[in-house]
Amino acid sequence: MSFGSDNMAPVSDRVMQAIVDANGGPARSYGADEWTNRATDALETLFETRCSAFFVATGTAANTLGLAAVTPPWGVTVCHEVSHIRTDECGAHGLQTGGAQLLTLAGDGGKLDAPDLDKILGAYDFEDVHHPRPTSISISQLTEVGCRYDVSEIAAISKIAKRHGMALHMDGARFANAVAAAGCTPAEMSWKAGVDILSFGGTKNGCLALEAIIVFRDTAAIDDRAVGDLARRRMRAGQLLSKGRFLGAQLLSYLEDGHWLTLAGHANSMAAELARILTGSGRARLAWPVGGNEVFAILSRSDQARLAGAGITAFEWRDAPLNDPPAADETLLRFVCSFATSQDDVARVAAILS
Amino acid sequence: MSFGSDNMAPVSDRVMQAIVDANGGPARSYGADEWTNRATDALETLFETRCSAFFVATGTAANTLGLAAVTPPWGVTVCHEVSHIRTDECGAHGLQTGGAQLLTLAGDGGKLDAPDLDKILGAYDFEDVHHPRPTSISISQLTEVGCRYDVSEIAAISKIAKRHGMALHMDGARFANAVAAAGCTPAEMSWKAGVDILSFGGTKNGCLALEAIIVFRDTAAIDDRAVGDLARRRMRAGQLLSKGRFLGAQLLSYLEDGHWLTLAGHANSMAAELARILTGSGRARLAWPVGGNEVFAILSRSDQARLAGAGITAFEWRDAPLNDPPAADETLLRFVCSFATSQDDVARVAAILS
Amino acid sequence: MSFGSDNMAPVSDRVMQAIVDANGGPARSYGADEWTNRATDALETLFETRCSAFFVATGTAANTLGLAAVTPPWGVTVCHEVSHIRTDECGAHGLQTGGAQLLTLAGDGGKLDAPDLDKILGAYDFEDVHHPRPTSISISQLTEVGCRYDVSEIAAISKIAKRHGMALHMDGARFANAVAAAGCTPAEMSWKAGVDILSFGGTKNGCLALEAIIVFRDTAAIDDRAVGDLARRRMRAGQLLSKGRFLGAQLLSYLEDGHWLTLAGHANSMAAELARILTGSGRARLAWPVGGNEVFAILSRSDQARLAGAGITAFEWRDAPLNDPPAADETLLRFVCSFATSQDDVARVAAILS
Amino acid sequence: MSFGSDNMAPVSDRVMQAIVDANGGPARSYGADEWTNRATDALETLFETRCSAFFVATGTAANTLGLAAVTPPWGVTVCHEVSHIRTDECGAHGLQTGGAQLLTLAGDGGKLDAPDLDKILGAYDFEDVHHPRPTSISISQLTEVGCRYDVSEIAAISKIAKRHGMALHMDGARFANAVAAAGCTPAEMSWKAGVDILSFGGTKNGCLALEAIIVFRDTAAIDDRAVGDLARRRMRAGQLLSKGRFLGAQLLSYLEDGHWLTLAGHANSMAAELARILTGSGRARLAWPVGGNEVFAILSRSDQARLAGAGITAFEWRDAPLNDPPAADETLLRFVCSFATSQDDVARVAAILS
Question: How close C231 comes to chain A (CA, Å)?
Fold first, then answer.
């Protein structure tokens, strides 16, 4: 049983069935098919606003193509020091932007701190040609350590971004988990809070390989040409799939009947239950609050060994600074729940640790 | 009914079933799964040699990542003036190589002509730092106009490449059709003829989205570090799919029982039949010999209108020079057959034109 | 004595004196000095229009930074197959544009042929995202084989460029020689003929290291942001010299009293004289008409040996196709005259060949 | 009178005379001239080891081309958070490396702290393809805030670099000042301490525009091909000057008779005197120890106004964190001395503040 990653989960049955169902006769290629068109419409309905959507196969592609639209080669994307675009995409940001920099900030729970951000950008000389120019801010929802930005926190960051003419990007690989946990609407969590571009993730939450780059056309601080160019960027990155119907079909089934939130809500509730078990046993403490479907817990190395011995996968986490770090005989483990995590899986952890 | 592109075809039932079957419990992510491992083994068996294989979702990614492994930013890839990497990948070669150039040559049927190539490279000053340095040659099998290189033609080009320390890349988006038509082994068509890197295509021939970059480790003129770096390049390009099992599963089912050649052989025979019909009617002539599953035929605009009126899709082709070009009242159409093209589809064309 | 290249010539005395004279006390750095400001004013006076000028140290930098302003990474620059940006800048165009392509055309004398250009661009599908998008045309004045575009030829190319929303760039490494030979004004040779960006060369014509990227602000098909970004591009390319006063000083002295045209006119007259000698002797024929300061002559290998034996440097030229190519016992030599070429130098060639 | 920057100083008389003297007849272009050859020899003599040297016109070019030789596109250069390559080169590192990242660390006085570095790199997973790979460390000598690494500090950093297979680069824009102040040999300050590549600066210390990228061939952790490729990188960056003799001539005169150290020693002594005056007056305190020719002093805003009113240029410095930052009525000023700073200049400051 695996709490290793939501990437290790399979595809939800509904999504898989939609893929199978899309496999009829011929269909127009490269995204000109009807599934893709309907999928964009579905996103506009979901987000209650006009969207340009670009479907791609990986989160790395979604994040870095989206950021490239608002970050010139001499630009800077401000992000948390523990963010996927910095630590886990092998420098894809540099590839797609043509060499732009990352300016990394610390912050509790993987979150950018608005006052810190304000101070640093307030002191930055945006006009001096010697300095690379900050043009975008990227935040992750959920963060790399499973925390969740409140809508008000996002709005505060967006306000700073706009003050400096910068775009706000959200890496929403786990956007579904964030929305399900916050109980707000997708619109409230994104453009209404000032997000300009969203990587809307599907893969970690039951899709096979589907992420959408969404530009909120009526509100985004992005010019039309840059949005149009995104179609070129996607093609050039080898991310325009020829049999695009299978991406559209994934998205349609993912959104239908709120399936995406059902999946994410289940994963979140499994994580909440797991957190209760871990802390309730007195044998573990949480490193950060649980914002969605991930539990970062500090427990003893002997408990770690017992879990591993019982075939339970959970990865050690070493990348983020902690106020109360593990002692020498402790470790920090990341447990990720997915739509496929069962009550039995969680109960099994309880049994092992009790 | 569509002869528009093999990209417009669906997924073969066997391949789709394999995707469904892979959708069990958890699996290791990012290509560390068992399907991916077995798929590499299967390629080594098929090609009768040691391979490094990197699975990606698109042909553009396969071609340009493979070429990037053998083309530094100041390098040059020599290719035909009508080649996918030049005309149809939106400059992806420039992205993945970091800005390398293409040097394009003419040649009948979309094929590089070995004597021409020899002459041009023989006169090139490879050492002068002012000149970008030719480091790779890329050929397409089938070519963009549906022709097929003989094994001996490939070997002649490879010999020239090796004389100049250059690598030979093959864009094998339709490698299956070429092998099926030539009746040789995959090894004979690739490394035994001196190909160093192959984009082994699956998508156009019945897969959902699967291409493999194959480096022939025992013979390729590529150093080990460059091969290792390909794993970084793929990740950085956003082409390392998290649920990699579904790529591995596609490949395994694609190769099993010679399924790939069955699919390609069928497409080829439909194309041969179509060519017979078109030319036999005396109403069309072939622009180029049919090398696999594509028929480029010159016919009257009135016949074009009749086909279109009957709902038959075939695209006009304008990109390549012809010795005997269409007259003013004629046009050049590309008919692409796929595994899904039926006898009825072909018969329908015959009926319309008769 | 060297007819090897105008790059092998020294610096004109006036220009060198200006460098020495600028070497007084402190001056503002990075182009904020008074020399640089006055140099831009001087260019506006010379060209009779509002200019944005960016001084750099090399022609490669000038060409490729200027083109980068009008060529996105997925763009294409159309140029002659024998052009400096393609053959002699080691792929700098790919570096500065972030990977854009070159589309090369043939044409007599190194010149783009307007009807050919029109035909190719007229057939190009600019909207299909699969195709890299042609966004700029670059012509060289003089061409790589020493020919000169008439003003009307430039205007014809510009008209085609504008029809397709493309920018017209001129590599003017030998712009001075062209203007001196044509007897027109700099304005007539550039923006009045529809040139948007000009690499205005100084180095080959008596400067130490000075090229100016000039954007004609009132007429150029370039948006203001792209012009502003050029300042970032130059800095990022390491081409913003800290002691910028020495670039400004070079330009001021170069333009003062028509010094630049005096230098170029002398070089041109030496070339004309040399061409007369070579062809008048009946021992050589011109490969192309002499457009300025370069003579491309076909002569016997024995004459080549006699010249070399007498210490006269002139390089063999192998890069360009010729209607009447050298016979087996002949060769094609490029003789370049500069401001420093003397009557004696030319007479010496006459003596050797007579 | 200006303490604004050593970039605002003129060219030393000896160096200017050498430029004038090199301006004789023809010379081979693009660095094939005798001055350039002799300049490389002179560097080998100075550094007591075999060197590959590449002369360029700016420090930005030197730093980023050198780093590009040891940093692949998916690589990471570790550097101080206040370093020129991060804050003042407009992202040139991203351009020349093809998009590599910077990993920035804090540290007193602009210096990397070896134990911190060791800890961070010790915990880094170099093999995981998701993570960009740290392949180079860059330190600045002097640092951006005028401090100087001891030879032993450099050696400690180099030891860590080598443990991880990384190259050590030194931004030596003020290497002359560092050597003059430390009283060691250039070899001791560079390759003997484990530096692999050095940007050897001339421009800030009396040259017109001259920086050398030096690779220490017998000791550098760089493979031969990467060194050879540097010649291509330089050309492609537009940094191979055609009239290269004037770079070679600068370097030769700069090194002759220890001229470079005479210039730097004078600048250092002026800075030492200035620091004494500022602190001795009790009206200012040093922000950091003076390592060479720069004084960072905290003084009252009223004193700042008095200096400015007297025509003395010294820039406010806002980029670096301080243990004892300026109070509300104070500011931090950077005073830079150069070879051209006079006793009178320094005395004038004393007079104003007394």
Answer: 7
| % of chain C residues with pLDDT over 90 | 95
Enumerate the residues of chain A whose CB falls inside 8 A of the CB of residue C234: 129
> Looking at residues A295-311, what average pLDDT do you find?
95
Question: Which of B238, B243, B340 lies at the smallest CB-CB distance from A237?
Answer: B238
Query: CA nearest A195: which of A175, A224, A180, A210?
Result: A175
C78 phi, psi to nearest 5 deg: -90, 130
* pLDDT value at residue A319: 65
Q: Are strands C101-105 and C75-80 parallel, antiparallel or unpaired?
A: parallel
Yes or no: say if C159 and C103 are a contact pair by the CB < 8 Å rule: no
Tokens of B237: 């390009």
What predicted TM-score, i.e. pTM, was given to this entire model?
0.97
Residue C95: asked if its preceding bond is cis (omega within 30°), the reply is: no
Over residues D266-304, the pLDDT tens digits come to: 999 999 999 999 999 788 999 999 999 999 999 999 999
CA atoms within 13 A on the CB side of D252: 19
What are chain A's domains?
Answer: 11-257 (3.40.640.10), 259-353 (3.90.1150.10)
Q: What are the E-state strand segments in D81-196?
A: 101-105, 133-140, 167-172
**Interface predicted TM-score of the whole assembly (ipTM), two decimals:** 0.97
Q: At what angle do helices B59-68 and B224-236 cross, to 10 degrees?
A: 140
Which residues between 120 and 179 in chain A have a beta carbon less than 8 angstroms from any beta carbon of chain B?
Answer: none
Work out the end-to-end distance of chain C between its first and last CA atoms, rounded to an integer number of angstroms: 18
CA dist A190 and A44 (Å) reads 13
CA separation for the pair A176, A256 (Å, rounded):
14
Lowest mean pLDDT among A20-34, B55-69, B321-335, D26-40: B321-335
- Give the list of residues 6+ apart from residue A6 with CB closer than 8 angstroms, or none: A174, A204, A205, A267, A293, A336, A337, A338
| Residue in C101, C129, C144, C319 to test binding to B, most B beta-carbons within 10 Å | C101
- CB distance from B203 to chain A under 8 Å? yes
Q: DSSP secondary-structure letter at A17?
A: H
- Do A145 and A82 form a contact (C-beta atoms < 8 A)? yes
H helix or E strand, kind and range, residue C215: strand C211-216
For CA atoms D36, D38, D41, D46, give the dihedral sign: negative
Residues forming beta bridges with residue A336, ordered by sequence position:
A294
pLDDT digits (tens, 9 = 90+) for D13-72: 999 999 999 999 999 999 999 999 999 999 999 999 999 999 999 999 999 999 999 999
Q: Which amino acid is at C289?
A: P
Compare all CA atoms of chain B with the CA of D130 and give the residue at the minimum distance. B235
